[in-house]
Amino acid sequence: MSSAFVKEPEGGEAFEDLPDRPISTEPNFVTPEGLALIEAELARLHEEHAAAQGADDKASLARTGRDLRYWTARRNSAQVVQPPEGHTEVHFGSTVTIERDDGRRQTYRIVGEDEADPAKGTLSYLSPLSKALTGKRVGDVVQAGTSEAEIVAIA
Known about the structure:
- 32% of the residues lie in helices and 22% in strands.
- The radius of gyration is 21 Å and the shape is elongated.
- It has helices spanning 32-55, 58-77, 128-133, and strands at 28-30, 78-80, 95-100, 105-111, 122-124, 141-144, 147-154.
């Protein structure tokens, strides 16, 4: 019989079956700061999970349980990459400033997938722009979206 015809428990407690968050199949490279963020998130989730248990909050238990599984897997697969010592070539962990054709300057740090937030100046090492920048030097021109950009600084 299809599960569509099975009556749910009273109170709509269908929270136990939240689907797991998808985990990337790519290597989980992280900066030292990224590892600290993962560990902080795990600590926060453990506290939240304990509070949900105490309150018998099934929805929070399901959500925090799912998130704990995700972040535990990410912590277990994390491969810390130390920042590059030299700043002559773009690598994972580098901070790169580019100048676009229209004169805009943008600065990004290349980080792991879970650390990435372009609005805050961090790009996943798997992003097209990060891939274009990796291995390049100051003065090199790369494809940045629909236009080109010159690398003007590496830190």
